[in-house]
Write a structure and sequence with these properties.
By secondary structure, the chain is α+β, with helices and mostly antiparallel strands. It has helices spanning 12-29, 51-63, 93-106, 135-144; strands at 2-9, 39-48, 71-79, 84-91, 126-130, 171-176, 196-200.
Length: 202
């Protein structure tokens, strides 16, 4: 079975700020492959043998979305059990319901994890910074972030992009291929293998 990931890749000001955090973590803790390209997972990683149906259902859910979803970024959180460091994400109701409809559409033929099967209200949106950390590094990073300023969509604009004044529209990307988290400009699920498609909302 092929493994898949459906996620949101942050763009513009938010992407630059989170990327700066990632560089700081790399320089301070030498995390290597434990760092990931910042993303908000909507479903996955999961497996299925029916790629054609998956692509069709993903396109249908995107095409049926009447209102552009949005989200807000903020402080930092930590999953103690899996030792994951993340940026907190607050979705609007449109994004909550989009993710839930997507999960409901693909669950009959995809092997989803338990957290993908939860209700719209229970799903915990977050933007992963680092994962699979050893216990000591995880505790050191928690201490490191105790006075870190929250991520903001109003991060100083890119001097080379005078048009960048507002938070970025939500972009949802679909990746098919091996599931990996190399820190090389590629990200979770984006390994260059398999097929790749994209759909923008907003």
């Amino acid at each position: 079975m092929t493994r898949y990931l459906i996620d949101i890749r942050q763009m513009g000001a938010v992407k630059r700020q989170i990327s700066a955090l990632s560089r700081d973590l790399q320089e301070t803790f030498d995390l290597g492959t434990m760092l990931v390209v910042p993303h908000i997972t909507l479903a996955g990683p999961f497996s299925t043998d029916d790629e054609n149906r998956l692509v069709h259902d993903f396109a249908q859910v995107c095409g049926g979305q009447e209102e552009a979803p949005h989200y807000e970024v903020g402080g930092y959180g930590f999953f103690e059990k899996t030792r994951v460091v993340f940026v907190e994400i607050t979705p609007d109701e449109a994004l909550r319901q989009f993710r839930y409809r997507l999960a409901q559409a693909i669950v009959p033929y995809c092997i989803l994890r338990e957290y993908d099967r939860v209700s719209a209200e229970e799903f915990r949106f977050h933007s992963t910074l680092a994962m699979k950390l050893n216990r000591l590094t995880f505790l050191r990073i928690k201490w490191h972030f105790r006075h870190q300023e929250p991520v903001s969509p109003w991060y100083p604009p890119d001097p080379g992009n005078t048009a960048e004044k507002f938070p970025d529209p939500l972009r949802i990307r679909f990746f098919a291929g091996a599931y990996a988290h190399p820190y090389s400009g590629r990200g979770a699920g984006d390994t260059g293998a398999g097929q790749q498609g994209a759909s923008g909302l907003g």
